[in-house]
Specification:
Radius of gyration: 11 Å
Order of helices and strands: HHH
CATH superfamily: IscX-like
Number of domains: 1
Largest sheet: none
CATH architecture: Orthogonal Bundle
CATH class: Mainly Alpha
Shape: globular
CATH topology: Arc Repressor Mutant, subunit A
Helix content: 40-55%
Strand content: under 5%
């Protein structure tokens, strides 16, 4: 299994959709999203390397996955 990093936005979005199929992605707080990403199996990103821009990109990719 490939290790996920913060830059793997699309792969993270797919994994989040599988792990949290009923999540309200539009109204999800970034603090929760940050925790959920780090809890994903295979996630190896440095928590300090995350920022609002990355979390927003993950959120948008996740919404895209739902469409």
């Amino acid at each position: 299994m490939k290790k996920l990093l913060w830059t793997d936005v699309r792969d993270i979005a797919i994994a989040l959709d599988e792990a949290h199929p009923d999540a309200d992605v539009v109204n999800l707080r970034f603090t929760d999203l940050w925790k959920w990403v780090q809890a994903l199996p295979g996630f190896a990103g440095d928590p300090s390397k995350s920022n609002e821009k990355i979390l927003e990109a993950i959120q948008m990719a996740w919404l895209d996955e739902r469409d």
